[in-house]
């Protein structure tokens, strides 16, 4: 369904995020017919460039980051016809009159703050001063939304001076992933799971977001953040919320976000001995973490695993084990809901102990797998065997099934449609920092160094111990 005509201003329009994600996503939606021919994209940044120069920048970005660029090439010129550029000083007045004259009144204006949080206040204020903010305006901000609770509160305050909460779209791109949204469809669209979705039947839940890549060229940012701030406080927290929340009455922004917020607020503080941090070691030619971030004594973690408890009626007694890290064995993100064993085995001790595990595979090979127990075929006794009921979405939907759009495609269109369901509300982000801050504070005050782990492994052994000591084990990263 095409969205209404809009103007999207990308502040930081020549930056890495714009190049890799925002511009290719817009182009793909244009090709899909969702972004009408009259929608306009206006890049704004400090770099001295004219419209033609920016169009060639956009065209290069598309060639590099739209996997279907070749198939889409006939659409490129008409897309670029609506792309323009303004040289702008976020902290001064240069360029703002021109931008104000470019943005059309009477249509949706989305302002994408693809810049460091230090500029949010300047941009928000100037949008007002130059008459570009009205009821049709929306602003989009990226993570990291703050560095801790205090800075997140400051950012919320700065934005609130100029925009209402319903105009602020805080992106967590995990919420734009098809499979993450599918979590809600699986939970609330099926009768099968929900009655068992509680501590009476669920032994524990594991959430893994493993990456095989290192920090790459982002060492400067990453070393100030670490896995806890970069991934745990936001992406894994969002996954935890969607898996653990109560059914919202409606699939609407506040109904969903109210339920997520309740989960975060019900989280117990994490005890220091329930957290493990790691830092990756060198691997052949690939440098170790410290070399990569050019900080020989860095104490920043590239891996974190922890055990969380949600103190409410549904989940008291069911631990949630979360882990994420870089340079791990593989790129694999999944959520595993591990059910309890049957209370009594009618087949006797030799049949072994069996558990159902529902695995939601987020990426790659998106799908759902349900481990069920069956009889081992053969004439022998009643021996039991666990087999997967496996559904890979790509197979289930067939070759002609719909594509999985990139998270940014979905999220940017939601901004234009004015739908905040998949964006974080200010209070939600603050609550997540409130939970993460004390964990980080202990590390910062203790001055301990993260445990080294081999690149290509599953992280430090201590992370395995986190589960072993509870008589459980992590699923293999594969
Ligand atoms: C980003 C983090 O938010 O998410 C990166 O800053 C991380 O460090 C990335 O690599 C992972 O996203 P995805 O979509 O590749 O799982």
From TrEMBL:
Xref: SUPFAM superfamilies: Glyceraldehyde-3-phosphate dehydrogenase-like, C-terminal domain, NAD(P)-binding Rossmann-fold domains
Protein's UniProt keywords contain NADP: yes
GO cellular component: cytosol
Positions contributing to substrate binding: 173, 177, 211, 230, 326
Pfam families documented for this protein: G6PD_C (PF02781), G6PD_N (PF00479)
Domain Glucose-6-phosphate dehydrogenase NAD-binding: 9-182
Enzyme superclass (EC): oxidoreductase
E.C. number(s) listed in UniProt: 1.1.1.49
Substrates-to-products reaction catalysed: D-glucose 6-phosphate + NADP(+) = 6-phospho-D-glucono-1,5-lactone + NADPH + H(+)
Entry keyword set: Carbohydrate metabolism, Glucose metabolism, NADP, Oxidoreductase
Residues that hold NADP(+) according to the record: 12-19, 46, 143
Any one Gene Ontology BP term: pentose-phosphate shunt, oxidative branch
Molecular function in Gene Ontology: glucose-6-phosphate dehydrogenase activity; NADP binding
Gene3D superfamilies: Dihydrodipicolinate Reductase, domain 2, NAD(P)-binding Rossmann-like Domain
Annotated InterPro entries: G6P_DH (IPR001282), G6P_DH_AS (IPR019796), G6P_DH_C (IPR022675), G6P_DH_NAD-bd (IPR022674), NAD(P)-bd_dom_sf (IPR036291)
Pathway membership, UniProt: Carbohydrate degradation; pentose phosphate pathway; D-ribulose 5-phosphate from D-glucose 6-phosphate (oxidative stage): step 1/3
Function per UniProt: Catalyzes the oxidation of glucose 6-phosphate to 6-phosphogluconolactone.
Protein family according to the UniProt entry: Belongs to the glucose-6-phosphate dehydrogenase family.
Protein name: Glucose-6-phosphate 1-dehydrogenase
């Amino acid at each position: 369904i095409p969205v209404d005509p809009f103007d999207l201003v990308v502040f930081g329009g020549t930056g890495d995020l714009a190049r890799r994600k925002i511009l290719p996503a817009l182009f793909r939606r244009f090709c899909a017919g969702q972004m009408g021919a009259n929608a306009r994209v206006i890049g704004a940044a400090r770099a001295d460039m004219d419209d033609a120069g920016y169009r060639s920048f956009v065209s290069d970005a598309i060639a590099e980051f739209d996997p279907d660029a070749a198939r889409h090439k006939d659409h490129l010129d008409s897309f670029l016809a609506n792309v323009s550029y303004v040289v702008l000083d976020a902290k001064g007045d240069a360029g703002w009159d021109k931008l104000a004259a470019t943005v059309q009144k009477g249509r949706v204006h989305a302002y994408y703050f693809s810049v460091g949080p230090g500029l949010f206040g300047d941009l928000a204020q100037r949008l007002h001063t130059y008459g570009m903010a009205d009821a049709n305006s929306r602003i989009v901000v990226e993570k990291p939304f703050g560095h801790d609770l205090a800075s997140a509160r400051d950012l919320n305050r700065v934005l609130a001076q100029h925009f209402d909460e319903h105009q602020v779209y805080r992106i967590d791109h995990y919420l734009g992933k098809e499979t993450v949204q599918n979590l809600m469809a699986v939970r609330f669209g099926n009768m099968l799971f929900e009655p068992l979705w509680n501590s009476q039947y669920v032994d524990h839940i594991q959430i893994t977001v493993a990456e095989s890549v290192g920090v790459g060229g982002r060492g400067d940012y990453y070393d100030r953040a670490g896995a806890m701030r970069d991934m745990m406080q936001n992406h894994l927290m969002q996954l935890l919320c969607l898996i653990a929340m109560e059914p919202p009455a409606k699939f609407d922004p506040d109904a969903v976000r109210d339920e997520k917020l309740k989960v975060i607020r019900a989280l117990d503080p994490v005890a220091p001995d329930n957290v493990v941090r790691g830092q990756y070691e060198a691997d052949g030619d690939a440098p170790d973490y410290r070399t990569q971030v050019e900080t020989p004594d860095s104490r920043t973690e590239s891996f974190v695993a922890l055990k969380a408890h949600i103190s409410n009626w549904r989940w008291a007694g069911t631990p949630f084990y979360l882990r994420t890290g870089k340079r791990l064995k593989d790129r694999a993100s999944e959520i595993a809901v591990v059910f309890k064993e049957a209370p009594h085995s009618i087949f006797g001790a030799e049949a072994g102990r069996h558990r159902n595990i529902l695995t939601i595979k987020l990426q790659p090979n998106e799908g759902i797998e349900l481990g069920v127990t069956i009889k081992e075929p053969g004439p022998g006794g009643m021996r039991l065997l666990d087999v997967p009921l496996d559904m890979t979405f790509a197979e289930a939907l067939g070759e002609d099934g719909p594509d999985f759009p990139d998270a940014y495609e979905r999220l940017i269109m939601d901004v234009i449609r004015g739908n905040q369901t998949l964006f974080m509300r200010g209070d939600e982000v603050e609550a997540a920092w409130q939970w993460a801050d004390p964990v980080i504070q202990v590390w910062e005050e203790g001055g301990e160094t993260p445990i080294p782990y081999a690149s290509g492994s599953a992280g430090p052994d201590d992370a395995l111990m986190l589960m072993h000591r509870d008589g459980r084990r992590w699923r293999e990263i594969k």
